[in-house]
């Protein structure tokens, strides 16, 4: 039987299409593809709304990923934060593929939305909003482990969402014996396994050193993202470069402890205050204080000038 | 040859009765009947890609390419060079192509060797149909290696469609297959894909029945396709990688 190129492509897509017959979801179209599966725009018939349906590619060939996807769903269900995509439902489709229904995010990826024309302060505000959900996750003992611009969505109204928590490291469960793999990492993450994206991973992650991965591993990736945002525009001021360098330290002990600490240092820069990562010189301090309190300084100088003129000619 | 076991109960195509081995491994089985069935299944999956590859790569004329194709599989059976396949070093499809290179080089040195048939009855192969298919791409495809892969996928999908037709007939699901044929096998370059309403009208069904039956038959197609792929893969890891590549089509490039 001869199959044309068009039919071959269609049959491959048909075989890849999830079978949602009998479920509340009607698949509409694929909107993205990740390491674990495909994300579809789907209609939730029960609630009459559109959702993002993340479906594992093939259960026959990726049995370990099914557990990881359910892990991701459980992590997301626990992390209720405006910067983290809410999960609505998870389960198994009639064809055996694991799925996860999430809020359908309408927006663009960070690396698509930022251009050289984007002002530095705007880029930093976006970065700060990236730090917030990551800090929230860190406070709950969750480490994302795959932070990169492609996993950050910026919505129509400037809202920032951190996506793809599929390789996140979970906190230890109370009923899990200390030292067991489940105690230290997501199911399926064994020592020596490299999870994440080359170019955005911390050195300990590159080595697959699961025990060494903690919030500071995400701090490293955030440092990469900050550098990405700074490199898009003109040369960044020294304090910002210092923040980057501290976040990107090869030694986790000299990085920021978590995303919250990193975010606060960026806040200090935005507020015109001294940042922790940079010891400024006297003239730099004076220039910063002048920039921060320019109106007050000018008023005082004007007053002093008037006094001098009054004394001299009065 | 390294025999890698598959999970018990793994169905294989063409009635191949082994339940623990792929057909690749089955070609080296001690039981001649099982070995024969494994070869039949393997040749069914690869003869067209091999024929077309010989035509494109070495510019052999149709008769010479047909002889070389027959002789290649006869030699594979007689000499048993597929037994040297090591799944840790290459995918089976790649190994087959490398073997083909060596075979054609030797055959060209020793004229007359093409006539070897080894007494083994090769499946009746429709070379005229393969030639017709080849003419559809001549002048547009210039990379024989890429074409070999494309044709391997086309052959695999064709086998899965054939298996689906048999499966539907055996289960009394002729209407299911008719829906699949009219909707998913439709040549959209000629006319647009029919709507579910049009399908329902033409087959005396409701739209809901069309939706459900199409979902069922597609589920079966997916299962049979993966069975076929598993059977002609050299190892479980090769099957996984091939399945991801086969089904991992970029949604942006595919009109759904």
Describe this structure in words.
The complex is a heterodimer of chains A (314) and B (256). Chain A starts with a helix and ends with a helix. With 314 residues, chain A is α+β, with helices and mostly antiparallel strands. In chain A, a hairpin with a 3-residue loop joins strand 1 and strand 2 (37-44). Mean pLDDT of chain A is 86; it is low at 175-185. Chain A has eleven helices and eight strands. Chain B has ten helices and no strands. With 256 residues, chain B is mainly α. Helix content of chain B is 62%, strand content 0%. The model of chain B is unreliable at 1-20, 117-121 and 249-256 (pLDDT under 50). Chain A binds chain B through residues 1-4, 6-17, 19, 21, 29-31, 33, 38, 57-58, 60-62, 94-95, and chain B through 129, 132-133, 150, 153-154, 157-158, 160-162, 184-189, 211-212, 215-216, 218-219, 221-222, 225-226, 230, 239-240, 243-244, 246-251, 253-256.
Task: Give a short summary of the structure.
Chain A is an alpha+beta fold and 314 residues long. Helices cover 42% and strands 15% of the residues of chain A.
List keywords for this structure.
heterodimer; A: 314 residues; alpha+beta; 3-stranded antiparallel beta sheet; 8 strands; 42% helix; B: mainly alpha; 62% helix; disordered C terminus
**Low-pLDDT sequence parts of chain B:** 1-20, 117-121, 249-256
Task: Provide the helix percentage of chain B.
Answer: 55-70%
Oligomer: heterodimer
Tell me the distance between the termini of chain A: 107 Å
Percent of sequence in beta strands of chain B: under 5%
What is the topology?
The complex is a heterodimer of chains A (314) and B (256).
Chain A lengths: L4 H12 L8 E9 L3 E8 L4 E8 L6 H16 L8 E6 L5 E6 L3 E3 H4 L6 H20 L12 E4 L4 E3 L18 H4 L18 H4 L8 H18 L5 H10 L11 H12 L11 H11 L1 H20 L1
Antiparallel strand pairs in A: 1-2, 2-3, 3-5, 4-5, 6-7, 7-8
Helix pairs in contact in A: 4-7, 4-9, 7-8, 8-9
Chain B lengths: L22 H4 L5 H26 L4 H18 L12 H18 L17 H11 L6 H27 L3 H10 L12 H8 L3 H26 L3 H12 L9
Helix pairs in contact in B: 2-3, 2-6, 6-7, 6-9, 7-9, 8-9, 9-10
